[in-house]
Amino acid sequence: MPSVLSARLPTRLIGWCVPLLAEAGALARSAILARMIGGDELGRAIVLTLVLRLAEMVSDVGIERLLMQRPGAMPAGLLAALHGASLLRGGATAVLLGLLALPMALAFEGGAAATTYAALALSPLMRGLLHLDYRLAERDLRLMPMAVVEGGAVLAMLAALPLALMIWADHRAMLLVLLAQALAQVILSHLVARSPYALAFDRAVLAEVLGFGAPLVVNAGLMFLTFQADRLIVAGWYGWSEVAIYGVALQLAMLPAQITGRAAGSLLAPRLRGLAAVALAALMRRALVVYALLGLGFALGFALMAPPVIGLIYGAGFRPEAGLALALGLAAAGRIWRTPLSQLAVILGRTGDPARANLWRAAALAPALFAAWAGLPLVAIAAAAALGEAMATLRALHLAWPALGLSFPKFGFSKVPV
């Protein structure tokens, strides 16, 4: 047993440390920008990142997740075809960003120019040339290549930040560091690859990718609505400084959810793949208990620590109210608890289940919009987010109930086919 634990420890450390580094890098980036360019400019920079995230999420057909789920060895021809699919996805995302540029510039008065929004298209164009070999290694729980690619890209982004601020000491510095991160990720993916890069366009593989990824695209759109649209609501009804306050608090609140989600993709998903029904249910039940405790512990800690910590790191003007911190912490707790359920759905090929659950989170945008229209404080929008996350998690549990080896109670639930 000690030898097994010692063999697993480095893998687990890498699986948790890489997403931690990614989120810590994003926080450091926003903290530096907050100090250097101020709240209003940071608010504009946050909206820039939201637009890029929107385009990336709604074009995410799950190429890496299909690669993770697919059993057996990966033929070279299939990997080349997935590279082709990745390149097409990058091009489609770039076109979408070009189409969004002018509407976004017109929608948010005083924000970034249309040319700045359009320049974001360079990021997905570059990422379309990623070498997916490091994802193959991740599938086999060899995480060092992933650590080099993802971690190195974060370090490159932080290294580019001083130069970006020398060129543009405003929200446009965010554009430069985002492009630097994408370029570094592509270069490092080719440097760590064991096989030569090959590119092919196969209709059958593209059809498989679209069939697998179509529900994920729907879910990604819902995820944007549930994870990012709150900040767009704040941008539309409140000032740029309020966007920065809410955006910083939300980013910090969702940091553990992002970390646990990425770590679960590297550590939990490979363990779930190929398990029989009884073993799968047992592992999932243990995971749900662990993630529920993680979420609850974080929510309590965030409510207590976030206001003074944010005020210390970002400045007193960014310190959130205690009620806002508590509501955002509870929202993150619901998302953390839902993490293993999302991994289970992908492994089982039920890629529509996350979208079904997130419909309930998207429904919470209605009370958030009403709160903004009525001029209620930011805590009302955060409370709507917490309610939506709780409803989405309950729906995800309902959908996964049979796979967890549990029978439905007789009062009110009906069995969902697997």
Task: Provide a quick synopsis of the model.
The protein has 418 residues and is mainly alpha-helical. The chain has 17 helices and no strands.
Explain the overall architecture.
It is a single chain. The chain has 418 residues and is mostly helical. The chain has 17 helices and no strands. It has helices at residues 2-58, 63-69, 76-107, 114-119, 122-127, 133-139, 144-167, 172-192, 203-227, 229-237, 240-253, 255-272, 277-314, 322-347, 353-363, 365-373, 378-400. Helix 9 (203-227) runs parallel beside helix 15 (353-363) and helix 10 runs antiparallel to helix 11. It starts with a helix and ends in an 18-residue tail after the last helix.
